Amino acid sequence: MKAKRKNVIAIILGGGQGSRLYPLTESRSKPAVPVGGKYRLVDIPISNCMNSDIYRMFVLTQFNSASLNAHIKNTYVFSAFSQAFVDILAAEQTPDNPTWFQGTADAVRQCMPHFLNHKFDYALILSGDQLYQMDFNDLLEEHIKNEADITVATLPVNAKDAPDFGILKSNSESCIESFIEKPVKELLPDWESEVSDEMKAEGKKYLASMGIYVFNKKLLVDLMADPDTKDFGKEIIPNAVGNKKIFSYQYEGYWTDIGNIDSFFEANIGLTEDVPKFNLFDNDNKIYTRPRMLPPSKFKNTMVDKSLISEGCILNAKEIVHSVIGIRSRIGKDSVIKNTYVMGNDIYQSIEDMEEDSQNNKILVGIGEGCYINNAIVDKDCRIGNNVYINGGSHLENATTDLYAIKDGIVVIKKGVTLPDNFRIE
């Protein structure tokens, strides 16, 4: 193992209310949303830090943080003789700060006294709701080598995607000279930057901010002294362009912002591809999460194709295709699951509980018999009856009910709900 970086602290921003990820964020914060069958979104930036020898991390949050707190407490426990930590900093009202976090920069400002209790030269600021694998050592070394005040991680994007991002324009020395927030397509010809030949060949000529920043400590402290600036992407970075030495660190690997149900669904189902863009099977870039003492998954008469099956599942399904099946999932016989993320369950039902539920005509935890589920997300701890038919797709209009939501054709079954026998969405 490399020596731990003792001059860096990581600040992971937990995000706001997460309304675009509703209903997955109805009872949990965005970083606590389950991903990949067994992980949480917050595991991604934390794992990237640990793989980059950064072991001092703060996670800033204020919405629905109980689930996130429990996950971090039960997962990231370091040696008593180590200085490593992952600390949750929830919004707190103090005599100096009587309000909740007003934005990303305001969150860092309000938590600054906690950061200053530790020695560091550089602050690495990350988002808690992105899927990517990056060696932050390369980012930090470029920042130091260039004697930058701020370094912004940037991703080359094409003209179609550029209007969805803050676009930075850099010169031949990767120094950022200008910034525009979500430019209209007519302006794009003036915002091309120097990128690699591979990116040029793909038409990716515009540098999008990834929301990943390195700040020198003194500058960050100075910037946080201004209470009028609330957000990094909308105020701090644009205001610093032309006034500070800001460098672009170009990243050309896989990265996606889990901002809405569509991107969340696509990222999870993408993990089932033969060679996924996000590699869970990498010795050098492990994704860490809570260790669970679960039994192996078991199958009976089930055809599985291009799918991820997590630990502790009991699967009697007929088919599972192009799907992610989360921990402790139970799926009954003759059921067909396609293009679906089943998040699984927090606990097992005991045989006694199952017998009692059956005697009382109560639907069991899990997915029943003879079901068909396609283009859907089934949140945790659902009770889905027999012969339930759910067929998501573009033919469905957006809708929200007590039991489910439909967004961009994806059916999201809410956490812990019960769908009766023969329930249909088609």
From TrEMBL:
PROSITE patterns xref list: ADP_GLC_PYROPHOSPH_1, ADP_GLC_PYROPHOSPH_2, ADP_GLC_PYROPHOSPH_3
Enzyme Commission number(s) from the entry: 2.7.7.27
Nucleotidyl transferase domain mapped to chain residues: 10-272
One Pfam family per UniProt: NTP_transferase
One GO MF term attached to the UniProt entry: glucose-1-phosphate adenylyltransferase activity
Keyword terms: ATP-binding, Carbohydrate metabolism, Glycogen metabolism, Nucleotide-binding, Nucleotidyltransferase, Transferase
Enzyme class: transferase
PANTHER family reported for this sequence: GLUCOSE-1-PHOSPHATE ADENYLYLTRANSFERASE LARGE SUBUNIT 1, CHLOROPLASTIC-RELATED, GLUCOSE-1-PHOSPHATE ADENYLYLTRANSFERASE-RELATED
Family named by the database record: Belongs to the bacterial/plant glucose-1-phosphate adenylyltransferase family.
Protein's name according to its UniProt entry: Glucose-1-phosphate adenylyltransferase
Species for this entry: Flavobacterium magnesitis
